[in-house]
Design brief:
81 residues; 3 helices
């Protein structure tokens, strides 16, 4: 279960890099990376009884999901989806 921390950290780092892109399609992939990271941290937190971390990651899922939807909408409007 400890390796899931590294997957969560890795996807979070890659997501942060991609979210900084000026292209909405690339940003959408960044938010996807954040969501994968969130799910990894939720799984780890549940296994480790770190419930405050789980609550925080659930909130981050909402913000990442919103970011993904907005980025996809902008990419579609720009004709790059």
């Amino acid at each position: 279960m400890d390796s899931i921390q590294w997957f969560g950290a890795g996807f979070g780092i890659v997501g942060a890099y991609l979210v900084a892109s000026s292209h909405s399609r690339v940003r959408a992939w960044g938010f996807t990376g954040f969501l994968i990271s969130n799910f990894c941290w939720i799984a780890w937190g549940m296994n480790s009884d770190a419930f405050a971390l789980v609550v925080m990651q659930l909130a981050f899922c909402l913000t990442s999901g919103r970011g993904l939807l907005v980025s996809r909408r902008l990419a579609l409007a720009a004709g790059r989806a």
